[in-house]
Amino acid sequence: MSGSRMVTYLDSTYQETLSLIKEARDYIASGTRARHAWLAPEARLQICCESMRLTARLTQVMAWLMMQRAVQSGEVPVEEAAKPENRLSGQVVCGHVQSTPEGTDQKMQDLLGRSHALYVRIARLDSQLDRT
Predict the structure, then answer these.
(1) Of 98, 89, 97, which Cα lies nearest the Cα of 59?
(2) Spatial contact of 24 and 55, defined as CB atoms under 8 Å apart
(3) Could you report the per-residue pLDDT of 52-79, keeping only the tens digit for each?
(4) Residue 55 is part of a domain; what is its CATH number?
(5) Cα–chain-centroid distance for residue 64?
(6) Given this model, what pLDDT does residue 132 score?
(7) SS (H, E, C) 55-107
(8) What is the rounded distance in angstroms from the CA atom of residue 120 to the CA atom of residue 57?
(9) Beta carbons within 10 angstroms of residue 98's beta carbon
(10) What is the chain's percent helix, strand, coil content, to nearest 5?
């Protein structure tokens, strides 16, 4: 991908991620507990864990994108961004797809699916850093 196309791609992916973060924040803040009050405690715990997985995915993706933007703007050298501590992490938690817990509403399922697809896309980009 050429430099200008990469910048455009990163900018659009950054905006997509920011939008998804806001959507997830609004969903979680809008009464997740009340939405699942009728479920068994185990099911509520599973939904809570999936909410944390959603948050972790989005946090990891945003951190990676911000590092890449810093590289593109010349604020951070490519070598610094390639260090393990600046790469996409959390693969064990974020890359894992759990079966949707019982009682999960459609919105949460949608957020989980979209966040996973985004994380996988960024993981592919991150793996390309090893080839440069």
Answers:
(1) 89
(2) yes
(3) 999 999 999 999 999 999 999 999 999 9
(4) 1.10.8.930
(5) 10
(6) 58
(7) HHHHHHHHHHHHHHHHHHCCCCCHHHHCCHHHCCCCHHHHCCCCCCCCCCCHH
(8) 10
(9) 12
(10) 75, 0, 25
Banded pLDDT at 10 (limits 50, 70, 90): confident
Query: Which among 130, 126, 125, 111 is positioned nearest to 19, based on CA atoms?
Result: 111
Q: Higher confidence at residue 3 or residue 5?
A: 5
pTM: 0.89
Place of tokens 């593109």: 72
Give yes or no for a contact between 71 and 81, defined as CB atoms under 8 angstroms apart. yes
Mean pLDDT, the chain, rounded, equals: 89
Alpha-carbon distances, residue 32 vs 46, 54, 58 (angstroms): 13, 14, 18
Question: Domain range for residue 84?
Answer: 3-131
Domain count, the chain: 1
**Tens digits of residue pLDDT in 22-58:** 999 999 888 766 777 788 888 888 988 999 999 999 9
Structure tokens at 39: 């479920």
